[in-house]
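Hey L., structure's done. Input below.
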Amino acid sequence: KPHAVMEKVKALAKAGLEAKGIRIVAEGSLKGRDHRREKIIDQLYYAIASKATILKPDQLNVPADKFVKQFGLAWSDALASGKVFNAMDGCKQLGIDADGMDAAWGEAKKANKLVKFGGGFYCSLVEIEGKVP
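Output:
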């Protein structure tokens, strides 16, 4: 979290690691664009990121009962429609960036167009004005 990157926090983290016998051999920083390009966050949070950016919808184990209850459509029919995307592909399809997806996701959540399938595993009907959902 960028707001937490302060000298005192870095010193505390370093001392804590060294106290556990971990030797720090190098230090550095990465800009946000480097995180996205290298998919660093995706690698750290693989279980969540795999569902949002790596795996395609047909590769996911979606609880069919929860999906149909939320959206009134069978998961298999949603897949067949070609209108189901992971977050990364959804951005491309809708012509938005990650910030646009975050904003649209927030609107979908407010409108109760979101379902939680499990820990960190959600599905939402993301709607962008002028785009077919």
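The mean pLDDT is 88. The first helix runs from residue 7 to 19.

-- N.
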